[in-house]
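B., you asked whether I could sanity-check this one before it goes into the benchmark set. Here's the sequence:
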Amino acid sequence: MPTHPDPAPDAVNATVHVAVPAGDAPRLRVHAVSHTHWDREWYHDAGRFRQRLVPLIDALLDFPSGGTSFLLDGQAVLLADYLAVRPERHGLLRAQLESGAIEAGPWYVLADSLIPSGEAIIRNLESGRRVLTRHGAVAPRVAYCPDTFGHPAMMPAIAAGFGLPVAIVWRGLGGEAHPPSDAVRWRGPDGSSVLAYHLPPDGYEVGSALPTDAPGATARWARLAATWRVRNRTGVVLLPNGADHHARQRGRDDALRLLARAAAADGAILIDSSLARFADALVHSATAALSPLVEGELRDSYGYTWTLQGTFGTRAHQKRANARLERALLRDVEPWLVLAWLHGDAAAHVGSPDARLTLAQLPSLLHHAWETLLRTHPHDTLCGCSTDDVALAMEARQRAVATQALGIREGALQLALGHDPAIVRSSSPLAHPPVVVRNRAGYARGGIAELRLVETIADVRVGPRSANANPLRATRNGDTPALGDILLQAGRSRLSHTRRESPQHYPDDDLVRVHHVVAWVPSVPANGLRVLGGGPSSTTGAEGVDQLASPPVIPGVPLHPASLIQSDASVVIDNGIVRVTCDAAGVHLQFGGRLLARALTLESQVDAGDSYTPSLRGLPRELQLVSVRAGAPGPLRASIRLRWKLALDITPSGDDFVPSDIQSMTVDPTAGQRANGSVVVETELILDADANHLRCDVHGVNLRRDHRLRLRWNTDLKRGTVHADAAFGPVRREPIVASRADSAVEAAPATMPMHRWVALSDDTHGEHSLGATLISDGLAEAEVTNGQLSVTLLRAIGELSRADLPERPGHAGWPCPTPRSQSKGRFRARIGLLLHGAWSDNTIAKIEDSCDTLLLPLTGETWRDLAAPPLALAGPTLTGVGLRASAVTLSADGRSLLLRVTNITDTPVVGAWQMPTAGPWHVTRCRLDEAPLSDAEIVDVKIPLQLSPRALHTLLISRA
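And here's what the prediction gave me:
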């Protein structure tokens, strides 16, 4: 890390030394750090803001200011943004980074912290370090989070895992429950801690536009000193000189010189500093006695500064898409690179003369996919508080990540299975092709699998030779292909086109019929594959292939098959564990001796808020249940299809809230009336064989504006404790209580973020205690009230920022209409309900298993030209109740396996990683950033684990 000694007293930007003032207060040492806070996109898109970034960095390179430093907001992506336009300046920029004259990182992007998963936060730091390394730079040892809308409880562990002893935060800290100190020891659930420096109420712009006249500097110092002395305990404070998209201040040197004189007269020292030097000074000055303790997540700065906890339902479809993409990369891409590393032949690790994708390219392509996704994570982007142009750009990046993930997955699976697309391209698709089933969990499992069976109908010519070809005709429906002795339940079928692609050939297009079925499959190895059908399978002893002496045992039929019963009055689905009855009165659920009447409802409520803050008006209106229909009949899957509707409203136009786009929605402009559109929602309640939870797939069309739409499970509990899934494990959620005065500045919403689930448990009745958990397919806005578990499906609002909200008077952003945030059109979600007993480690494990079943089901598809595949390929297997595989991937250099596990319980857990093949293996315990924590140990197959409560444990594994 570049270091810079204090300048001499007679330097141009002199540190002014004065005598220590009388009294107990420490002498202030003020570190002035010039910076820009760079929202990469917000009220402009990224391209427009880059037009300001380029001259800003040019000015830093062309007009250096002595030995001073300038901070590029803690994010490395700005370097790439600049060099994309000014590549010829790479050498000059590199020199400034190496010297410390420009600071960047440690993040790739300055992202939101509560919405992304814990692994996505780690990937953000990894990507930032990778970019900085290319430019010969090292980031300041600071987890720099100056404008994030709250912080996860495990951020201290993440910071410690990257060697960052200091965090800088603003929002989320400072509420009534927190100590009045600008330096606190922030401790995570695992016991890791970081020294958190809390910015003043004015945040990162407290030192912007410093006066360049003596009276102004004296007055400014008086205000600054008054703010600092109330809360400072270390004698070290940060003066960030800059603000949103600000270039280096004109007259900065004169302004600092004048401010230094004013500080000296008050017995303080002003240092023209850098973020790195400030962090070193803070660590040196802080002691345990002077640093009060703060624990858990930071979501409460009410009365101190705006916390802005109302964004979790804004542009909800994008947040759900982000969660699906994170899961795709973490659970349906990275483990297959591990399989290729474990089971691929020697050629899988080097470049291919035939231009096949191999492990020589796949890790870099994975990094690029992550960086594409991370560019959607800045808080103004992912939180949804940005313009419609930014939202459209985000969706384009999300689509790009989805297609990249598919390509990387296909390439990795081909290597793992020994499939060469160039060789097989010359042959026709197999008459009886195999189906490859993927298990995206860290433990072996069988049972229900969702399969995509592809039936080839005819070859389709493309190009000039297709001009006179006879048109192909095929019926849309056909018999579901058999799959040996595997029990199948047919679903929908459709005609489609598919291609076989090869680096040596044009694509081969075929007309196919795609059958979507559910199947009852034998056990699939952890992080591994099972091949079904396709004739004889290879058991020839190829390296890395499970040696199965005989074909796998077919499990036959489930113990609790699902059934559907229909009568004139109701439709019932039942699997002997859960029973759901739907009739004109609603949805009723039975689980054991528990009965939930009207268990499912949907509601709409007027929302007059903006992208930052909801402003709910009136009472919620329930959607009307208008039809109940039988769906899947069993025995593997039974379902009921429900249709709900909220009709179009015609109301007087003189009410207290008029949406911004009223003219476009008025039915008759001369009638003094206005219309608001309808909402139609289809929910399919799905009960699988042997399942202990209920799945609800939601598809809807929203034509209504200025409202919040929620799905609600009505449980049999009236009170209890609330836990929610968050980065690297659950957190307990207590209501945020703000004073009346604080609430007048910004009201604390009753809602909260949840990653995959939120649970309510009443543990006051011992072994008879009850609990219920709502599961969601993506980060969502949740609320728990009076035993009701609610999740926001969408917020329909039309303004980036409003100034007249009673919940938050004043603009949180630049006023701008955002009609696309009205969320008109189609939407979808997957929601689940699990009923259980008291909160315990076993309950947490049960919730996690249900999440895997709902969100990461066994899935598979036909490989039409996969000849002689292995019966099964296994990845690393994790054992230990309460242990969850967080990452099964390759190391940063692609030469080793990286296995990360987290203990999501509050008790110590003993477990193990089981390698799929015998060693010897070199196993090295390391930090999150892969820095070794111990010497390598040699193991054969089993790697024992002992994890303390909520611990993160990372291993690098290579062949000995």
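One thing to flag: The domain at 563-855 is CATH 2.70.98.30 (Beta-galactosidase; Chain A, domain 5). Otherwise nothing jumped out at me.
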